[in-house]
Design a protein that fits this description.
The complex is a heterodimer of chains A (176) and B (166). By secondary structure, chain A is an alpha+beta fold. Helix content of chain A is 19%, strand content 31%. In chain A, a hairpin with a 5-residue loop joins strand 4 and strand 5. The longest helix of chain A is centred in the N-terminal third of the chain and has 12 residues. In chain B, 33% of the residues lie in helices and 11% in strands. In chain B, helix 1 runs antiparallel to helix 5 and helix 2 packs across helix 5. In chain B, 37% of the residues are buried. The chains are: A alpha+beta (176), B alpha/beta (166). The interface between A and B is medium-sized, with 13 and 14 residues.
Chain lengths: 176, 166
């Protein structure tokens, strides 16, 4: 059983600057911020290290931080420039009984995050969902297509804060 | 055949009833509305409860059929997503005439709780197929669905062979 602080120290010793920060004193559990492009390597370590053995990805969720600059586009709608999209990983070790939360943030304009599909297979559909609804692109995911919205959905990513619903889809009126 | 109005006539032979073809067909149709086995969301649970022994849909001649080719009635029981709407339209087109539609619950009537922020929800199934009876509720109780079915039967009873009204 290890605390997030101990895990953060051992990660920091191996991966250096790629492990950015341990956020404590949150209203929720503390979490570790990590470089999005090497999250897969860190997850391999967390899974395989004898003292950690994080064998289960409990949840993977995408978030639109909406921390960029809000501007009005030509039609007067909201448009967010810059800022980040984030992915949160909740992982658990069933043998040691400890849990951990990881966070990565990628730039909104080109949100590239390394896929953890090959670390935990349950990441497959979770990453497809984050891609479908927020447009986060997971590198090395073998089958990154939409999972909930129709495959021919062209209006963008519905859970982004500046998303605009289309007038029509396949001849059907969408707004009320 | 109690609603046909000719039973009070006296005949000398047994087993004779006089009626007209229109009434006979309408009576046959409204008394055996075979429903397509099809459910979408929480309304479908309520629809299944209506089919089960306590409310017993079968006493009105409604029984589920596994294929649209054998169905007279489709109950749209739940949230119609844009993705599903295309499939519903295809299923409806695969049903043989005469065919009827009951829209069950707020979601399929008008989008329900998803009317404003439901980016994936069709705001009423009547945007893709014609609806005969709307049953309000979220979800409607089995009694409400039964009432909707009785309304549909009333509609079919007054149909004319020349013109389909329902």
């Amino acid at each position: 059983m290890k605390s997030p602080e101990e895990i953060f120290q051992s990660l920091k010793a191996i991966f250096g600057d790629s492990v950015v920060e341990l956020k404590k004193d949150q209203p929720v559990e503390s979490f570790i911020i990590i470089n999005p492009l090497i999250i897969d390597k860190i997850c391999y370590f967390l899974r395989d290290n004898e003292e950690l053995l994080f064998d289960s990805l409990m949840n993977l969720s995408g978030v639109d931080d909406a921390n960029g600059q809000s501007v009005n586009d030509e039609e007067g709608g909201l448009k967010i420039l810059g800022g980040t999209l984030s992915v949160y990983y909740h992982i658990e070790s069933t043998s040691h009984g400890h849990k951990l939360c990881l966070k990565v943030s990628a730039p909104r304009e080109n949100p590239l995050v390394a896929s953890v599909y090959h670390v935990w297979r349950h990441a497959d559909w979770h990453e497809r969902e984050a891609y479908d609804l927020l447009g986060i692109k997971f590198q090395n995911h073998p089958d990154l297509r939409r999972i909930l919205m129709p495959y021919d959905w062209e209006a963008g990513y519905p859970l982004r804060k500046d998303y605009k619903n289309p007038e029509f889809y396949q001849g059907m009126k969408v707004p009320y | 055949m109690f609603d046909m109005g000719f039973l009070d006539k006296q005949f000398t032979d047994d087993n004779i009833v006089i009626t007209n073809v229109e009434d006979l067909f309408n009576w046959a149709r409204l008394s055996s509305l075979w429903q397509m086995s099809f459910g979408l969301a929480c309304c479908a649970i309520e629809m299944m409860a209506t089919s089960a022994s306590h409310y017993d849909f079968d006493r009105f001649g409604v029984m589920p059929r596994p294929s649209p080719r054998q169905a007279d009635l489709i109950i749209i029981s739940g949230t119609v997503t844009l993705k599903m709407a295309l499939r519903i339209k295809r299923l409806y087109e695969q049903m043989p005439d005469p065919k009827y539609v009951i829209s069950m619950g707020s979601c399929s009537n008008c989008g329900g709780p998803y009317w404003e922020h439901g980016y994936h929800v069709l705001k009423g199934v009547d945007r893709v197929i014609p609806v005969d009876v709307y049953v309000p509720g979220c979800p409607p109780r089995p009694e409400a669905l039964l009432e909707g079915l009785l309304k549909l039967q009333e509609k079919i009873r007054n149909e004319s062979m020349v013109k389909k009204s329902a």
